[in-house]
Amino acid sequence: MTRSSSSQTILLAQLDAIFGLHPGFRPAHAKGAMLSGTFAPSPEARSLTRAPHVTRESTPVTVRFSDGTGLPLIPDNLPDANPRGLAIRFHLADRVHTDIVSHSTVGFPTRTGQEFLDFLRAAATGDPSAFLATHPAALAFVQTPKPSPASFATEAYFGVTAFRFINQQGWRGTAGIAFRLKRAWNISTTRQLGEGRELPV
Question: What are the distances in angstroms from CA 192 to CA 33, 63, 73?
């Protein structure tokens, strides 16, 4: 077992310790809804990057909206279901893809996998104050208001990692991604898993 796979195993075990074992569900953002669609970039986007899904007229996508936590039956209207998640997979060719993983709060509590594991361990004790006192980014993330949205489709989402942009002229830059879905989406689906208010997808 490599160091990377060992760290991942430990991290997954810690998530299971917090949320319990739920076979067949993801250890984080367990409750979600899958959709398929088409991504059509704006003409202005081509000045920022030469990425194929931006330079093409359109690209098929798979989208997953999700509630936070590893609880697959968490009610949509509970504050603990925040932040909401949005993952997009751009299908560039057969078995070739690129992903954007985002959630509805700016930033992330830690910068490294080890720090995130330490954050989870502190949270599992019920009193993460000692950890938060020495990790200001985690404290800011925890204290950031996370209101429940009226709909997944009207929420704002923020990438959890930065991206490097290189355009056709060779310009390079690094930035985070923040976006809202356009109202062109024709979505009227609602779903209900667990007790609580239905949240339109």
Answer: 11, 18, 9
Residue 135 near residue 64 (C-beta atoms within 8 A): no
Contacts of 8 (CB under 8 A, 6+ apart): 113
Q: Which of 22, 29, 53, 135 is catalytic?
A: 29
pLDDT tens figures, 122-164: 999 999 999 999 999 999 999 999 999 888 888 999 999 888 8
- Alpha carbon separation from 182 to 53, 59, 90 (Å, rounded): 17, 16, 17
**Catalytic residue list contains 103:** no
pLDDT tens digits, one per residue of 50-105: 999 999 999 999 999 999 999 999 999 899 999 999 999 999 999 999 999 999 99
Distance separating alpha carbons of residues 116 and 127, to the nearest angstrom: 16
Phi then psi dihedrals of residue 119, to 5 deg: -60, -45
The pTM of this model reads: 0.83
Phi, psi torsion values for 199, nearest 5 degrees:
-115, 115
